[in-house]
Fold this sequence. Notes:
300 residues; alpha/beta; Nitrilase/N-carbamoyl-D-aminoacid amidohydrolase; 13-stranded mixed beta sheet; 13 strands
Amino acid sequence: MSSLTIAVTQLELRAERSVEAFLAHMESLVADSAVRGAELVLFPEFASTGLLGAITDHRVTKETVISDYWNVLSAMTGEITEGMKRMASEHGIVVVGGSHNRIATDGSLRNTAFVVHPDGRVESQDKLHLTPPEHSMGARGGDDLLITRVGPFTVAVLICADIQFPELTRYLVAKGVDLILCPSLTWNRRGAFRVRTGCHARAIENQLYVAISPLIGSSGLPEDAPLYTTGSALVTGPVDKAVGRNDGVMAIADTSEEEVVVVELDRELVLKSRETPEPPGLKLQRPELYRKLRFAVGER
Length: 300
């Protein structure tokens, strides 16, 4: 089989009162995805942010939120990961559980996505390029790229802003990647447009599939500066006659509410696109020219 059916969630940000409530929210979408034939389900960046609503010993405000990310949300990630392992096993589906806060062994705060397989394996990918708000929290970016297999596809995870750095995707393609998963959190339309355009560009440049899962809505927290999130669940691919989508859109959410988009992706179409490119594609690269240009301007 050359096809993989994936589900991409457009997850509503809610004030979750407990880890159990959050996991039940996740599992409702995992179960729906599995019933609809999905073999993989993707969740957004910082999917567990709504668990700020579980804090009861103080008001969550701009003054407390950095400490809450470090000391409260990160402490819940182990339990969340165990919950995702159970869901993956019981529903027979790969759960790419979005990303969550965690404290690394070096004591740093990381934004980490987890790829949880039905057989119990858990793989992880740290976000590499952090946003100014993440830097202001004292978080640290990762230094490694995960490459894994799901069905016929070689898969990688680029978290939100990471999709805007084409060097990463070109490296991944050289390693055989043909499907990129992009958990995302953006708090204005500019950010959502940057991520969406980055996904389209990477799919066109590299003749592969890219899936975006956004967090949407607001939990009303922090109380004095509520986070509002926006975006659209989207799966995009090459823009050519091999795939047959004039805009590259394989599937997209059609509402601004919580939704799961399910689509079957055929790896053979990506291989066909790469073998007989309609526009200049990977097969028509000129690495000798790129080396000359790089040495002409120097390393930057």
